[in-house]
Amino acid sequence: MRLKTIIPSLLLTIFCAACSKEQANIPEAKGHITFTVSGESRNTQGGTFEKGDAIGVFVRNSGADFATNSKYVYDGKKFNPATEADDIVITKGPDFDFYVYYPYDETQRDITNITHTSVNQDALSGWLSSDFLSGSYTEKIIDFCVPLNFQHRNSTVEVHINKNDGEVTGAVIKNVKYRSSYNLLTGETKVDDTVTDLSMYSYKPDENRNTQFRVTLPEQTLSTNTNHIQLSGGSNLTLQGTSSMPLVAGNIHQFNITYKKTVSIKDYAPGGTTGGAGEYSLGSTATVTSSPNPGYEFVGWYENNQLLSSNQSYTFKVLSDRTLVPKYRNYSSWTVNISANPTQIKTAGGSSAITASAVRNVYINGELQGTATGTVSLSSDNPAFVITGTTVRVSENTTTSTRSAIITASCGGVTNSVTLTQPGRKETYVFTINGGTSVTSLFESKGGTAQYTIVSQKTIVIDGNSTTVQANWSSSWNTSSFGSLGNDGTLIIVDNPNTTQRAAVITLTQEGSGKQVSINVVQKKKNSVDIED
Q1: CA-to-CA distance for 396 and 462, rounded, in angstroms?
Q2: Are 63 and 89 within one domain?
Q3: What is the pLDDT of residues 206-248, one digit of tens each?
Q4: Around 271, how many Cα atoms within 13 Å sit in the side-chain half-sphere?
Q5: Number of helices and strands (H, E) in the chain?
Q6: 8 A C-beta contact, residue 282 and residue 3
Q7: For residue 370, how many other CB atoms are within 10 A of its CB?
Q8: Contact assessment for residue 198 and residue 217, using Cβ atoms and an 8 Å cutoff
Q9: 14 vs 318, more confident
Q10: 130 — alpha (psi -120 to 50), left (phi > 0) or beta?
């Protein structure tokens, strides 16, 4: 749920460390269990554990209950059994699993259903007791000091009251769920649908006109319709959110509320002078005034371009930061406007309608109020884009490059322009021989003929319409030609006059794309030798 301004929620997880290395590898086979946590991390989402804090401990041995809700108390360094009856003594070797929760409640007996209630938190004790943590240790016991790793199972809502000056002294969150239960074995959380109003803890008042209120709750989604924040003190106000907010366990969800609101006036100095800007208490009344300068007429007080009042004096109730704009009317010289529809003409050619105007403007705070029209002349910096009246025409773009023109509107020495573009056609090529990029053919010494399937195509795409045509190609040999290659893909190899094997590479190059495929020719040697008489 958002209250005007939102500070992103902070995640603060408590990490717990293993026991000291000095205690590891204790030779005893049986011992008394104690627990430690890293950095003396406390149950709340800020602070540290203090002496006297107590946790509840459940122990299971091979799936069976071994200890139920034993109370362990923090002595400043570790948690020790509260009484002799709470002391957990185990033997090394068996499989012991430890499940803990905070704060301790002597009524808890069911490890799968640890109940918890968030209470009124106007006092520190209520805030501390409303949080809930759980943790487990299921690793092998090395010594008898078990390291705990807690996780927050509730969420904290924090409201920042900025520029308070002591007026706001209390906060209540309305209609929130406050009862929950936790399964220490599975980590499952169940939240009761019963709702109540809970007072919030004044967590961190400071000397900088800021106050922070906190409340800790089970996971739920705060609604804009029901979960309001009610402030009390100098002014009793109920604040409603603008969107819902899911509360996440372990997170601090922050709201930012400024109690002293600022009324700002965005002056237009040439038009006049104003009064009434400054800081006001939330819910109080403010009055702003304007005095126009000679040559200007007062139009009204505006906010977000919406007219609030046409009177030079305007009074209103301050419920948020306000930025007001006094507007004044005056007159100026010519302004030229121009637009085109469309700004991109098809590759096949077409036209664009130009809308151009020259206006002798009536301004409000320098912005257009009314117009007196003038005669506009149009020109193009590209002769391919021909202007006829208010229409620009261009023929087909037969290249693959985009071309453009700046169309300029002129009046009284003032110009404005719009750019028209025309994309080029797109061309793609396919060039294969026998479905690939190269083939190798072996010929007998007496030569022979081979037939190849040569695909050479060019596809032209104009405005989404494609046309495929044949693309020319040429061939070249890397050695003296001992054959010929026809346009239909027929290769003729003549007799090999040599007593050694010979080879050649025929390179085919596609016109337009430069793509190449090749034929590797290998011809056996001549097997007989001619003897002269």
Answers
A1: 9
A2: yes
A3: 666 778 899 999 999 999 889 888 888 866 777 777 788 899 9
A4: 23
A5: 1, 50
A6: no
A7: 12
A8: yes
A9: 318
A10: alpha
